[in-house]
Amino acid sequence: xxxxxxxxxxxxxxxxxxxxxxxxxxxxxxxxxxxxxxxxxxxxxxxxxxxxxxxxxxxxxxxxxxxxxxxxxxxxxxxxxxxxxxxxxxxxxxxxxxxxxxxxxxxxxxxxxxxxxxxxxxxxxxxxxxxxxxxxxxxxxxxxxxxxxxxxxxxxxxxxxxxxxxxxxxxxxxxxxxxxxxxxxxxxxxxxxxxxxxxxxxxxxxxxxxxxxxxxxxxxxxxxxxxxxxxxxxxxxxxxxxxxxxxxxxxxxxxxxxxxxxxxxxxxxxxxxxxxxxxxxx
Length: 282
Ligand code: 13P
Hints:
Elements (H helix, E strand, L loop, with lengths): L4 H10 L4 E5 L5 H12 L3 E5 L1 H7 L1 H15 L3 E8 L2 H10 L3 E4 L6 H17 L3 E6 L3 E4 L2 E3 L9 H11 L3 E4 L4 E2 L10 H10 L4 E3 L7 H9 L2 E6 L1 H17 L7 H22 L5
Parallel strand pairs: 1-2, 1-11, 2-3, 3-4, 4-5, 5-8, 6-9, 8-10, 10-11
Antiparallel strand pairs: 6-7
Helix pairs in contact: 2-4, 2-11, 5-6, 6-7, 7-8, 10-11
Bound molecules: 1,3-dihydroxyacetonephosphate (13P).
Keywords: Metal-binding, Zinc
Protein name: Ketose-bisphosphate aldolase
Pfam families: F_bP_aldolase (PF01116)
């Protein structure tokens, strides 16, 4: 079924697991991600930046997610990632996205609350879930860089207040991850995550999943992470394979010969991640 973020994270909470949220950059990548979830028999969150949504077409993305969810009988959420502009969010909701993120993390707290509340009010009218961010995750996302001196961890007390004031469904936390970190892995602040987890009672979201050490996945899930965002790893591996294929093949070959090997890699990586996010004992 095509469902909301709130619904899928509730189920994840009951199972003490996280749902993988994978960024697609084009229409091709999307079925490869969903197929991995089908193979692993779990729900999946497809997320797009505003840039990807405008490039592919919001309604096209909604249509593919809906039809694949029906065809394969799995739960799929389509989520707008890191939107800072209300009009972009409204466009996604009106086209049928089932979840959106308002990213007011660079705003002063009061303005972040006001902006988030405005999104929640509109989203609720359309039965769409809302994720918001408090604190600042480092790194680069869709070309926008956050300098290390601007990184701020999420304050647990602020989080309690923020959730009460806004009525969001999920909270993205800043605990040491960086967007776009793929050449190294990050050191997480588990103590801070624990404090946040103890203070709030909604699902928590980790951004910059590519840079998280595999051995830390279980630990953060046990501390309340329910949505695990992964983008850069897929992008980098797609680009690497794609380069190889285009160099190897003659120019008038079917484009599928260059694209399908990239899709296979995407499915393989997503399956591996989903398996980790199931938080099984072995
Ligand atoms: P990475 O691209 O670093 O995996 O982060 C993805 C993300 O957090 C999307 O919001």
